[in-house]
Design brief:
The protein has about 500 residues and is of the alpha/beta class. It has two domains: about 5-260 and about 445-495, Alkaline Phosphatase, subunit A (3-Layer(aba) Sandwich); about 265-285 and about 330-440, no CATH class. It is built from 17 helices and 18 strands. A seven-stranded mixed β-sheet has the order 2-18-8-1-7-5-6, with helices on both faces. A four-stranded antiparallel β-sheet has the order 11-12-14-13. Strands 15-10-16 form a three-stranded mixed β-sheet. The longest helix is centred in the middle third of the chain and has 26 residues, at about 165-190. The chain is globular. The chain starts with 6 loop residues before the first strand and ends in a 22-residue tail after the last helix.
Amino acid sequence: MSDRTRRVLVLGLDGGTFDLLDPLMEAGDMPFLRQLARSGSRTTLESVYPAKTIPAWYSFATGRDPGELGIYGFMEPDGGPGKARLVRTFRPFEAFWDRLSRAGHKVGVLNLPLGRGYPVHGFLLPGFFSDASTTYPEGLRREVERALGCPYPGELPVYRIAEREAWLAEATRAIASRARTAAVLTERERPDFLFVLFRETDRVEHQLWDELARPVAEIPADLRRFWSAVDAGCAEVHRAFQEAGGPATTFVVSDHGHGAVRSDFLTNRWLAQEGFLSFVNGDRLDGRRLVSRLLFASQRFAVGRWAGRPIADVLRRPAMAGVQRFVGGSTSFEQAAPRIDWKRTLAYSYPVPEGIYLNRYNPSIDADRGRAIVDDLRGRLASFRDARIEVFEPSRLYRGGTFDRAPALLLRIDGMATESRMDFRYDRPLVKERPRFFYGTGTHRMEGILIAAGDGAPVLRPGVPRQLTDLAPTILQLMGQTPPAELAPRSFAPAAGFAA
């Protein structure tokens, strides 16, 4: 392409939020991002719902919302009751960089969650699903590892409080290694478009949000070093991209925001309580057994809160699977599925935790009865006293799509400060004070981040709503390409005074 072609770099910070980044930038821990935001402009970026890594990044890549993609979470139904598979691609839709590739732009995509790479004019090194995911070109991971002199980083392992120091050190090393990989590939390939995703930011926020939410001076030093490494990684990739020459725009983007998690809503437990989900022979599917209940009850006391997470850490080890079943019982949805009466059950939640599905295995549910069940569910959820439950129908939440495999309803609880869960782990639907040993202290929010700086960067005016799906047509226009007709109206490049 011509040296005058505008080039675009997108740095993805999974779960990035200004609630955390602003104090760190002001404290001097993230000087590159602070300068980038000051030299350009910034705003919040509204995610899609559910605001989860896979549907969100796939919506960013394609400009399509989850309803159009038919992707509502990490998993999708596959086969009979209680069976699901991991979502591994946004196909048959294409990413905006596929369109750039066909137009002759060299593109690079690093660490996007994909089951396998595919041919592009450039390179694609997937992340998240497997350390052995196929790259494009094949063998790229081996080439990267030779250049790095060490293994290319995969997904972080399960967090255990007893291994906090080592786990966070591994997360920090992974950030540096991923940034070095992106810089090496940029120097070698000189892409016109580059996307680099740092997934570790989300993982750290999930586990350690309670520490990150403190005043900056009280955040532990190793956590501040992690975020400084994120900043340094972004700076390294940005510098390599700039050095390749030509007009260049840099975006810093997150797929969603982050915040504290307070409570958990066990949707299937509520559905069973309300009579929408039935068990064979009247089985009540008791939740945790005595030892586990005592652990849960101990959270009311300081010594219990101190001891709960180390005990839970031990129980989560793979070698302790038998002990887990003895202590916790068979309470996952997959374990419970054979005990559900599928001919009488009206609705259930699986495999998307935020979703409630009508039971297509119940022969008595026709279109009219299905509509009545949905109306009944909506009314009862709206009147739930102990949490604020927003209820959405996919056909009204999304721009389009076929919804035959979608949840009948999607729930958002307490502004996402309460997480929806699918298991039967406890005997009541709402665990109002989430135990510290549960699943970490942070969860997602709708408001992510958007920073734009450099040549031709659109001005991001505060208060002007920007959505994650707006970026695909915007970047296409910035790079001189015409977006698909259905995406073009959402580009904010013309509103910012730029037209291709």
